[in-house]
Amino acid sequence: MNGFRAMLGKELQALYTSPLAWAVIAMFLLLTGYTFSAWLIVGQNASLVRVIHQSAVLLLLFMPVITMRAFAEERRHGTLALLLSTPVDEVAVVLAKFLASLSLVCAMLAPTLLYPVLLDHFGHPDWGTVQAGYLGLLLLAAALCALGLFLSALTTNQLVAAVTSLGLGMLMWVLDSLGRMLPAPFDVLVVNTSLIAHFTPLSVGVVYLSDLGYFLSLTALGLLGAVRALARP
Amino acid sequence: MNRPDNPELRLPPLVEIRGLSRRYGDRLALDGVDLEIRQGEVFGLLGPNGSGKSTLIRLLTGLLAPCAGRITLAGLDVMKESAAARALMGYVPEDVMLYPGQRVHEFLRFMGRLRRLRGQVLADALERVRARLGLAEVWRTPLGRLSHGYRQRVLIAQALLHEPALLILDEPTNGLDPQQIIDLRELILSLVPRHTVLVTSHILSEMERVATRVGILLQGKLCSVLPLSRESRYRLSVVVEANEAVESLLSSLPGILEVVSLERKAGNERVFEFALAQDAPITLVAQALVEARLPVVGLHPVSGGLESRFLALTSRNTGA
Question: Which stretch of DSSP H or E encloses residue B69?
Fold first, then answer.
C-alpha cells in the first residue's frame, strides 16, 4: 500500500495543527465533564452509562465536523488531483484519513478515562460495563467516520459534506423509533439498521457479536464507498 | 537557449494515444484523438477553452477513465498499469492551493515519499530541486505565505523530484510576471532532452519559444500537429486575382517550407505567410517576386507563425 505512512503523517500534522481539532476536543471534554460531575455530585449516581450515551450523541454531532474537510477540501483546492497523479494507492489515502480522524476520537476519549478511575477511587464501578461502553464509542466513531469520509469524497463543498453526514448519522440514530411503528417483518429490519439499537447493548455492558459485526460492516461499507469515489470516474 | 534539435525526435514515442474519446453526459469532450509524443521533445497542447485540453491531461494522468481508446506511457497502459505509469510522470496542475500550514521542505518531502523516494535518494532529490528551482530562500516558509511565482516553482519541484520521464505542465504561465515567465521558459528548455515535456498554454508566443511540436485541439478533436522548427517566417501582401499564382510560385522556390493563404483584403490584395528554411536567403524570394512582375504591397518577417496557423485552423473549423 504505497504512500500510506506518508499520507498518515501528513494527515496527522494537518489535523493537529488545525484549531478545529482542539476546539472539538475541548468542547467534548467540557460537555462530558459537566454531565459526569452533575450525575456524580448532584444525582449521587456513580455510573458512567449516562456519560457514554452523551458521548455517543456528541460523536454524532462532531464526527461530521472532523471528516468534512477530508476529501472535499482536497478536491476543491486541487490537491486531490496532485495526490492521485502520484503512484499512491487510493486505499492508502482513504485509510490514512480514516485513522487520522479516528486518532482524534481517541484523543477526545482518552481524558475521559479519568472518570472511571475517579469512580474506582471512591467506589466499585463495573469495569466490564466501562470497557464495553468505550468499545461501543470507538465502533460508533469508526462507522460515523467512514460514512463521513465517503460523503466528503463525493463533494467539493465542506459544508455539504458536513450537513449530509450529520443528516445521515441522525437518521440512522433515530431509525429505531420509526421501525417500531412498522408491521412485522419490516420493524425488525428497520430497527436493526439503527445505530442506537446496536449501540445501547454495548453502552450497558452487553457485547453481542451481531452489534460488533454491524459497526464493522458499516465502517467497511463507508471506506469502500470512499475508495470507490476516488477511483477514476 | 534553443529548442532541441530534430535528431532527438527520431527516438520512439514516449506517449502513444490511440482513438481516445471521453464523454461527459451528452457532451463529447474528446473525440477519437490519436497522438504521439516523442522522447525528449517539448510538446505543446493548444486550444480554446472547452476544447478538451484539460480532459486530455486528466486522462493522461489517470485521473479520468476514457470512454474509448487507450494511452500508453513508455509502453505502460495508463489505465491498466496505472501506478507504474504514474511513477514515470510528474504533473503540475493548474490552480492548486497547496496545504497552507505545511512548509516547503515538508511538502516536498511528503511528495517525494508518495513518489517512493526514501532515505539518501530522497535527500539528494530534495537538494537537487532546491538548487534547480531556487527554493533555498523559502525552504522553511509555510506554503500559505508563498508568492504565486514561488508556489509555481514548488509545484514544478515536486513534479521533478523523481526525475520523471514525462513532465506535464498545465497552463504553467498563468499568473506569472514577465521575469517569472522567462525563468520558466529557461527551466523548460533546460529539462529536454532528459525529460519529455507536455505543456498547455494559452500564450501562443510562449509556446513558439519552447515547443518542438504543437497539437491543436478544437471541439475535442486534434485538428493538427504542427512542427515548430527554427525556420524564418514572412508575411507577403500582393495584389492578384487568384491565390494559386502566388502559392505555386512560392512553392517552387528553394528553401520554402510551407505557404499559407491568410486573408483577402479589398482590391484583391491577398495576404500569404510562408516559412523559409533557416539557411535560405529571403533575397531569392524577393527576386522571384520581382521577376514574376507581381504587384507586391509588402513583405516582412513575422514571429514563428503559430498564431496565423492557429487562427487559420480555428476559423476553418468554426466555418468563419
Answer: strand B68-73
Longest dimension (CA), chain A: 59
Read off the C-alpha cell for B59: 486522462
Backbone φ, ψ for residue A27 (5° rounding): -65, -40
- Do B43 and B22 form a contact (C-beta atoms < 8 A)? no
Chain-centroid distance, C-alpha B102: 31
Q: Does B84 touch chain A (CB under 8 A)?
A: yes
* C-alpha distance from residue B253 to each of B24, B33, B283 (Å): 49, 35, 11
- Which chain A residues have any C-beta within 8 angstroms of a chain B C-beta? 2-3, 5-7, 9-10, 13-14, 17-18, 77-79, 81-89, 232-233
- Burial category of B81 from C-beta neighbours within 10 Å (exposed 0-12, middle 13-18, buried 19 and up): middle
The pLDDT score that the predictor gives to residue B10 is 54
Q: Which residue range forms the structural domain that includes residue A34?
A: 4-230
CA distance B6 to B229: 8
Residue indicated by cell numbers 440514530: A173
Q: Is the pTM of this model over 0.95?
A: no
Q: How big is the A-B interface in CB pairs under 8 Å?
A: 77
Instruction: Tell me the residue type at A31.
Output: L
Among A214, A3, A210, which residue's Cα sits nearest to residue A93? A3
Q: Whole-angstrom Cα distance, residue B260 to residue B133?
A: 40
For chain A, how many structural domains are there in total?
Answer: 1
CATH assignment, B6-227: 3.40.50.300
Q: How far is CA B248 from CA A173, B256, B259, in A?
A: 82, 11, 9
Region(s) of chain B under CATH 3.30.70.3100? 232-303
Reported as a single tens digit per residue, the pLDDT across A39-83 is 888 877 778 888 999 999 999 999 999 999 999 999 999 999 999
Specify which residues B28 forms β-bridges with: B23
The torsion angles phi and psi of B213, rounded to 5 degrees, stand at -140, 155
For residue B78, list chain A residues with Cβ-Cβ distance below 8 A. none
Smallest Cα–Cα separation from B310: which of B47, B4, B40, B64?
A: B47
Residue range B232-303, CATH number: 3.30.70.3100
User: What is d(CA B238, CA B240) in angstroms, rounded to the nearest whole number?
Assistant: 6
Provide the ipTM: 0.88
pLDDT above 70 coverage of chain A, percent:
99
